[in-house]
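In full, the data:

***
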Amino acid sequence: MAKDNNLQAKDLDIYILRNSRFKSFIFDHKEIRCIANNLGLAPDCVRTELRKLGYCLIKNDHGRMVWKRDQLGHTPW
């Protein structure tokens, strides 16, 4: 099971890095569902893996919840 979790995190990180629309942030609901569908994961699993990859859930200036990578924290490489 641990191998599956590591594979999911790696696949998610590669997917995000290769998609330019996710460079600065990821909207919590619609984009999380899109990522989950494309990777064959549940949206909650994507959120969990984003936390492991160093993303934080914050509210942007327009009041929408977005995932943003912690600039001071974890880097995947």
Summary: The two ends are 22 Å apart (CA to CA). The chain has a mean pLDDT of 85.
